Amino acid sequence: IADGCNVQENCTIHMFPGVTVVLEEAAHIGHGAVIHGARIGANALVGMNAVIMDDAIIGAGSIVGALTFVPANMEIPPRKVVVGNPAKIVKDVSDEMLAWKSQGTALYQALPAELHATLKPCEPLRETPLGRPDPRQTYRTWHETRKP
User: Fold this and answer.
1) What topology does CATH give the domain 6-96?
2) pTM of the full predicted structure?
């Protein structure tokens, strides 16, 4: 995983023994995506819940749409938009699209510095503070709402 990559929550990066997954510089992997034994090019975007299978190659600056399934061994050239199940190349990534992607990745790249600058130490609660609402009084389960 190269510098500047953004791997979001609930992603799975996995491979078979002896295989390497590569995320090149500034690759952006959306929430819930699965990268399995693949190579993601520099400044590429893999959308939320997309699945990239073994030995697939996503070219630099390409955009893989959310929920797209890229099958094993598929090679996506640089700067292509890919969508569907199975994945299909639908158009080229324009300069405007690439700038949008880069700006989004930059926002995520800035988060660690912001976190470190604003993080405050805290202590765990050892007992419930006085006056704190009882969650049992503010929330009822679906089953409880059905009781007469």
Assistant:
1) UDP N-Acetylglucosamine Acyltransferase; domain 1 (2.160.10)
2) 0.81
